[in-house]
Specification:
By secondary structure, the protein is an all-alpha fold. It is built from 7 helices and no strands. It has one domain.
Length: about 120
């Protein structure tokens, strides 16, 4: 029975990304959810900035693997540290909007990061 499950899992993982199931989930309900964000709204905005910064870097590294380091280490870094973090967005930005190629390629990693974002916002 275990061999059958392993073979089935291997077959599912080998399927094209578009044919794979994308089991979306929702967070565990509770009165504790989002309490930190309500109490510290500026911190909530910083989470949005961090998430945006990570998404932009994933997309740049995937789409243009030969991107000059100067662009990432100077231009992107400068924007994130001198503009974005000083004026973080009020709302979370959908990762698909910032990193469309990356989220199509590595949707499982994207889901993992989404769950990390939910965890950060819940605690």
């Amino acid at each position: 029975m275990r061999c059958i499950r392993i073979a089935l899992l291997a077959a599912l993982l080998a399927a094209p990304a578009a044919a794979q199931r994308r089991d979306e989930q929702t967070y565990y309900p509770g009165s504790f959810n989002w309490a930190f964000l309500h109490r510290y709204p500026q911190a909530a905005r910083l989470f949005n900035a961090f998430d945006y910064g990570h998404s932009v870097l994933y997309e740049r590294l995937y789409v243009d693997a030969g991107v000059p380091l100067d662009r990432l280490e100077r231009q992107e870094f400068e924007f994130i540290t001198t503009d974005l973090l000083r004026r973080p967005p009020k709302f979370a930005i959908a990762e698909e909007a910032v990193a469309p190629a990356y989220t199509r390629l590595a949707w499982r990693a994207k889901q993992m990061f989404d769950w990390g974002h939910v965890l950060h916002r819940q605690i």
